[in-house]
Amino acid sequence: MRRELGAGGMASVYLAVQTSLDREVALKVMAPALAVDPTFSKRFLQEARMLASLAHPNIVQVYDVGVTQTQLNYFSMQHLSGGDFAQRVRIGLSEKDLVRVLEGVANALGYAHQRGYVHRDVAPGNILFDVNDTPVLTDFGIARAISQAARITSAGISIGTSHYMSPEQARGGDVDARSDLYGLGVLTWFGLTGKPPYEGADGFAVSYAHVFEPIPRLPPAQAHWQPIIDKALAKDPADRYQSADEFVAALSRFDARAAAPAPAPEAEAPTRVIKRDAVAAAAAARATAEPAARAHVPATEPAPSVVDAAPAPAGKRWIPVVLAIVGALVVAGVGYAVFAPKSSTTTAAVRPAPAKPAPEAPRPVDTPVATAPSPPPPADPAAGTTAAPVISDTVASTDVTTEATDVASEEPLDLSKVPTVVDPVVELVRLARADLAGQRLTNPPRTNAFERFSLALRIDAKSKPAAQGVVDTARAYVDLAEKAWTAGNPKEFTDFLAKAEEVAATVPDGAATVAAARTRRTTEVDAFVAQADAAALAWDKDAARAAYEKALVLDAKNTRARDALRTVDRIGAPGFVFRDTAGDGKGPELVVTSTRLAFARRETTRAEFARWWAAAGQRQFGGKEPSCRDRESVFRSSRKRTWQVPGFDQDDTHPVVCVSFAQAAAYAQWLSTSTGKRYRLATAAEWDSLAKQAPAGSCTSANLADAAFRKAFDTRAGAECDDGFSATSPAGRFPAVAGVFDIDGNAREWIAACGKSGALAAGCREHGVRGRGWMSPGDREGVTESNAYGDDVAMNTLGFRVVREIDP
Length: 808
Fold this sequence. Notes:
This protein is an alpha+beta fold. It contains 22 helices and 23 strands. The chain is elongated and about 125 Å long.
């Protein structure tokens, strides 16, 4: 890979060398952020497959398709080093060369159309040249099969480049091959003038112009191209060239001139041009009011700028916008009163009047003006009225017309019937509702539901319709999230929910929607985490990792999933903590200490022992419990002292004591039966190996005899320090050794040994005990203190823990 040639939102393109053939290629690699989403991967590969199926000299060639080691999709294609069409136009392009380029692009499109594909983005940047100066059509990233309808993006914007899209594409309607032929017309205009036929302050204004503005006029020197421009840029697809071959035939009959076209004049930069809702509204009003005589506005006609007289003070900059909106709405109201059809029940009959041209109102720079391309339809004799146009503030309808009523046929204006005051809040809410219905939620800028509702609230903070509109906008995002989830797009799902929260949080009434969006996300995150936890318990690393990653796609800050993902590779390795399911509950928490063994992290607690006692232990040992010695003295032994009443206070978190070796072994056997795994007591070697890692005991590292013990039992034995416990402490209160708590102190432990350290065998009368307990002095024998006691012995210093064998 040599260098980056370009980058976009979906992929980056690099100059690379195909070593097998020693040739330069353009390598298109999908963006890593999108690789986790199967939908984007599918779209990326769709482009590769589409290009690979199109073998044409004027369409870029695909050489290879694959996936990198880091799971990124890529495909390599023909490297086109001759620049793009825009560069050619800037340095000067003769009309003969323009015809050659247009024929090549048209032939490429015709070939694609015959195979069922519409390009949908015929723009100068997508026409490149190879080393032989052949024009080559590229970037089929948004191409679709002709049988499929055009889509709208999640933000509500039509797919394509706004300066080069057809009217039906700008409205988000269905497209076919004739939309590409419209793009050829725009490309022709660009080649002649150096600029697109329609320009505006933003994408919305340009899209509006494609739908409503008349076809511009070329300068006299280029007027011989006007017939091709007029047919290619027809608003109605039925009036355009019907195929690429028809367009090429028109070019073949055309006598192109050898001289290069004059460079396009550079537009003067407007000074602080007002580019807000008021401009668009005023343009719509003027479009309604202008007479049919202004059906064609010369493309070179200068347009006066609308300039702020002085900057608005801080905190009041919205006032000019509101005044502009009100002014625009007044103009619209006057236009409506003048040109709307007169009903026989509300107005006088129409009488002819001398024709008088209406003065042209100045219009802001880059603001599209809708004018009528044809005269109005004749009046209906039965109704006695003329059909009047309805101009929407949106460009969503395919049936919008711009026909104007003849001013000469109107009566003198009755000013008493002309509305002079329009409530801006009511009007903003009305426009916002239309945006909401058209899924223009927060885009395009300034002309979307959220911004209009919000502006209405800035004017009137108590407007309930505006506040409810904000909530409804947020709920619309929640609905989009549900659709994304159903379609299997988790990234879009969480992005839409985040947008719902962001929008709803701007109004007090949106609190419930914010909570609902968060709950919806949390529900799916928790489901993925639970799925991952279950896979981890089953020691399925791959499934656990995949589920944790899905949870993080939905909530990148989820601590539980993030922490678990860091340890997923440690599943089954030393230090891995897990639990088995035991019957209708969970078994003890275990930590892997070697490749073949896991230790219970805590001594068996009273709660765990009570569960076994209720399930099986009482039936097996009820009435046969051994006498329990107090502090290991044979003189303080009593059957009244049991694991439930050990002679001092305990709760369910403390280690169970006063149990015999037989009871400990029976508990381990019950766990084996309940979990299907092999549980037992640790051998002397296993226990000693772990205990050797423990530091020398003290009041901070283990529960041993101390000042609290001396005071409680009136003895001089024990250290001067105080760990706060005179007898047992809750299991796990002191630091762990290799992930295991209380390997030193708290309770001494039964081990699987015959005598102190021998292997278990039938007929053993004594069994091993390891470690120190709560009454052990800190200076005696150390952590690995060992003893052996008979089967019938139980002590309130003696408990146990289990180990679990790991399947090879």
